[in-house]
């Protein structure tokens, strides 16, 4: 029985640990857009939120709302003809490089969600950034999504779709080519996605039910990001057989930093044969041992950490416990 199967089972590729994926500083080149966002003080956002209709976007004090129409109406999702200065990054990489390029998701430490208007009065929302940039270890490039403070699942999924299309070789002329004059760590294959806003609704009347998302920084968790109701997941197995169905997983809270890992067992129906009972007992013992090892402060044989080796837009990947080295590193 396969171990460590996440909610979605997808791929392997170039390894990128979560530790190396951290660090979400926004460069000076992005400051032009952020300047107006950050100009709205914390007091101003709180005052606006306190007077807004409950449940609307305006009532969320994390969000910066710019009422004055923005003159730069090109930076949003549209089907308009591409701007001449924008490029496609596809030609800079081989097909294999794009297919195996890691995707990392981090929380921005500087930018927050911005809701603004175009010259025609249409509202837009900017909740995430997307780059192709050098990996911290210098071995190739990576897709990097930066989630703004207050970002939700719709903000993230918009960027994931761009990654998917780019990986498939779609030559969308909607990127800006960068270099060392933009950031010291950039190279000649660094790109930023320009159309990082999406059409939105009036924030003073609109209720956005898309769940909040944050990047996952727990090295043992199999997810890249979490929705507001989610939990960290170390390992999971789900079985459906005639007369027997169950799910066993090892989880911990995403809110309580000191919360221990625990084993969750969900059994809907179970009228099993001796073999099926033995399988359930085996899975319980496996999860019990994984949970025990994860909660040990120092382990002689540590639990393998989950490397950010996923290359597609999925949010989980299996941990191959059986083939992991004794030291617990993913190789």
Q: If you had to describe this structure to a student in words, what would you say it looks like?
A:
With 331 residues, this protein is of the alpha+beta class. It has 2 domains: 1-9 and 223-331, no CATH class; 23-214, no CATH class. It has helices at residues 18-21, 31-39, 42-51, 95-100, 153-167, 274-295, and strands spanning 64-66, 103-112, 114-117, 123-126, 128-134, 141-149, 175-178, 190-193, 198-199, 213-215, 225-227, 231-241, 244-253, 262-270.
Task: List its traits.
331 residues; alpha+beta; 2 domains; 6 helices; disordered N terminus; disordered C terminus
* Percent in helix: 10-25%
- Mean of residue pLDDT? 77
Order of helices and strands: HHHEHEEEEEHEEEEEEEEH
Rg, please? 22 Å
> Structural class of the secondary elements?
alpha+beta
Strand content: 25-35%
């Amino acid at each position: 029985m396969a171990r460590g199967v996440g909610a979605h089972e997808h791929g392997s590729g170039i390894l990128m640990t979560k530790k190396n994926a951290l660090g979400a500083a926004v460069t000076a080149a992005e400051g032009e857009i952020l300047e107006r966002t950050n100009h709205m003080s914390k007091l101003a956002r709180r005052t606006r939120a306190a007077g807004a209709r409950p449940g609307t976007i305006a009532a969320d004090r994390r969000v910066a709302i710019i009422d004055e129409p923005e003159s730069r109406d090109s930076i949003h999702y549209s089907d308009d003809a591409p701007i001449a200065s924008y490029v496609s990054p596809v030609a800079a990489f081989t097909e294999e490089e794009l297919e195996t390029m890691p995707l990392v998701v981090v929380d921005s430490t500087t930018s927050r969600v911005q809701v603004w208007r175009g010259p025609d009065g249409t509202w837009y929302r900017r909740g995430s950034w997307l780059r192709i940039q050098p990996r911290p270890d210098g071995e190739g490039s990576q897709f990097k999504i930066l989630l703004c403070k207050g970002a939700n699942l719709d903000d993230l999924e918009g960027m994931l779709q761009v990654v998917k299309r780019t990986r498939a070789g779609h030559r969308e002329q909607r990127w800006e080519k960068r270099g060392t004059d933009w950031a010291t760590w950039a190279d000649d294959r660094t790109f930023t996605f320009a159309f990082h806003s999406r059409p939105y609704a009036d924030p003073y009347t609109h209720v956005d039910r898309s769940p909040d998302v944050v990047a996952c920084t727990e090295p043992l968790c199999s997810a890249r990001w979490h929705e507001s109701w989610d939990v960290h997941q170390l390992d999971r197995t789900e079985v459906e057989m005639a007369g027997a169905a169950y799910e066993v997983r090892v989880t911990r809270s995403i809110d309580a930093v000191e919360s221990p890992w625990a084993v969750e067992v969900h059994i809907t129906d179970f009228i099993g044969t001796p073999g099926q009972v033995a399988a359930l007992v085996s899975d319980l013992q496996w999860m019990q041992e994984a949970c025990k090892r994860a909660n040990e402060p120092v382990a002689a044989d540590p639990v393998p950490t989950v490397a950010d080796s996923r290359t597609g837009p999925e949010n989980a990947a299996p941990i191959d416990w059986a083939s992991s080295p004794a030291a617990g590193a993913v190789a």
